[in-house]
């Protein structure tokens, strides 16, 4: 008898249940059953309530802080490994701790490398993620990494807006490669903000490289945390004569006073994915779903088909 590939099973960590349900629906199945028991001191234990022996298992969960989100992913990977799953894919719409990808001063950790190592130790045989903070983080893994680009969903959205005199902007020098990729796809100009930080999340100086007068500007970044950089950049561009400023950021971390800053800023809108659930609603924040992108890639991975089209801007 020919070998029949068993159906893939999709499970979710608690922090990403809403997105995981959409991914499973787009995949054409339902989420597998997981029960999480919690002790009075906060310790928790996830349990698969169905057999995964010999199956390809997808475990969906963004690992944004707090640390419980990462810990839950690790425990579920370990449980799947010990339950004899054949392939265990960690689907991380947002790969947390990625800003610590190098030693930028003495005696600090490289957290992104550490997280990569413990994901593999816990049982992940493959990683699927989207818009890493730094592309080189893929090299921290010994297992295959499918690094998806949110541009595959953002670019069609931008084209539908029909903006004239479009200019793509990077809020810092580190994002210039991403900005140039968007500008090439949209055949637009590029401007870059140069910023200096006094410390983490505190900008001491910002300057603009390029002309934005009379332009509809779209700032592009992989994530928005406190929104300090984005809102400061938007204000600076409007002062320099921009017609409008909006921003596209894949991962809406949005911590601290971020929501208030966005509301009070000169940003016309902030467009994000649902890789991380929003903490509150905002009239300026628009969410573009990424479930179909992940479901498509997961289907291709399970059926051993090429996913190279998802890596092209």
UniProtKB/TrEMBL annotation:
Catalytic activity: D-ribose 5-phosphate + ATP = 5-phospho-alpha-D-ribose 1-diphosphate + AMP + H(+)
Gene3D superfamilies: 3.40.50.2020
Record-given protein name: ribose-phosphate diphosphokinase
Organism expressing this protein natively: Salegentibacter echinorum
GO molecular function terms listed in the Swiss-Prot or TrEMBL record: ATP binding; kinase activity; magnesium ion binding; ribose phosphate diphosphokinase activity
Occurrences of domain Ribose-phosphate pyrophosphokinase N-terminal (ranges): 9-123
Alphabetical GO biological process terms: 5-phosphoribose 1-diphosphate biosynthetic process; purine nucleotide biosynthetic process; ribonucleoside monophosphate biosynthetic process
EC number(s) per entry: 2.7.6.1
Swiss-Prot/TrEMBL keywords: ATP-binding, Cytoplasm, Kinase, Magnesium, Metal-binding, Nucleotide biosynthesis, Nucleotide-binding, Transferase
GO cellular component entries: cytoplasm; ribose phosphate diphosphokinase complex
PANTHER family: RIBOSE-PHOSPHATE DIPHOSPHOKINASE FAMILY MEMBER, RIBOSE-PHOSPHATE PYROPHOSPHOKINASE 1, CHLOROPLASTIC
